[in-house]
Specification:
By secondary structure, the protein is α+β, with helices and mostly antiparallel strands. It has two domains: about 1-90, DNA polymerase, domain 1, CATH 1.10.150.20; about 100-235, Cytidine Deaminase, domain 2 (3-Layer(aba) Sandwich), CATH 3.40.140. It has helices at about 1-15, 20-35, 40-50, 55-60, 60-65, 70-90, 100-110, 150-160, 180-195, 220-225, 230-235, and strands at about 120-125, 130-140, 165-170, 200-205, 210-215. Strands 2-1-3-4-5 form a five-stranded mixed sheet. Strand 1 (about 120-125) and strand 2 form a beta hairpin.
Length: about 240
């Protein structure tokens, strides 16, 4: 068993290198479906039966189940992966702009957030050239309530080391004018950004009546000054 687990760990370490062969990729995918067996033979049998990974994921549950060692559960797992890939491949390259430019981003927000049925808070991570690295969504799937854990936010900053961020929040009803809670959240995010040396570019709030920008209103600059680590330390210094 120790040798089996060691083999799994060695092959998993090769993932990031991009040096895996076709049967090794399939072998790793089968780890979750077959947690306590050697999946190398299964991977080779599948490739022999269907010619390639594409052939494997194009096969039906019945066809996959006909391969020795592949029961209906493993077959369903492989079909699910194939369906997921088809769905993912048909999605747009990104669900948000590739680059942050304020006016363009505001127009994006107007379209992207108008049909949401719950309040969300999205953090867009930017690299040094203001390209969008990814979006992380914070929500509890409850109307009128969004919570951002400081720990989760810090983990996000540590994991991706962005150069900047943009926060987008939506109001389901009423105007886009920031509430007291919105201001408090903005200040908390700014403190965290200052701690991680990340530029907090803007906090945009969508409502059916428009999009509010902390930056355009001048509040972003004020909050950045008041809630930086340096300002906080100065205010408590003796």
């Amino acid at each position: 068993m120790a040798g089996h687990e060691g083999h799994r760990q060695r092959i998993i370490k090769k993932l990031d290198s991009g040096a895996l062969e076709e049967h090794e990729l399939l072998e790793i995918l089968l780890f979750n479906a077959v947690p306590r067996r050697n999946t190398n033979d299964l991977a080779h049998r599948l490739l022999a039966a269907f010619g390639s990974i594409k052939g494997v994921f194009s096969a039906s549950i019945e066809q996959l189940s006909a391969v020795n060692g592949i029961g209906s559960g493993i077959a369903a797992y492989l079909v699910c992966i194939g369906k997921f890939y088809e769905y993912y491949r048909e999605l747009p390259k990104a669900e948000y702009p590739e680059h942050f430019e304020l006016e363009t981003f505001i127009q994006f927000v107007k379209g992207a957030y108008k049909n949401l049925k719950q309040e969300v808070l999205d953090v867009y991570l930017l690299d040094e050239s203001s390209s969008v690295l990814l979006r992380r969504r914070f929500t509890l799937n409850q109307k009128g309530f969004v919570e951002v854990s400081p720990d989760d936010f810090s983990k996000l900053m540590i994991e991706y080391s962005p150069s900047g961020i943009v926060v987008v929040h939506n109001h389901l009803y009423g105007t886009s004018t920031p509430s007291v809670a919105d201001d408090r959240t903005t200040k908390q995010v700014q403190v965290a950004c200052s701690f991680h040396n990340v530029l907090f570019c803007d906090h945009l709030i969508y409502s059916p009546f428009g999009v509010y920008s902390y930056y355009k209103d001048g509040k972003m600059q004020k909050i950045s000054q008041e809630c930086s680590i340096a300002s906080i330390l100065d205010s408590i210094s003796i």
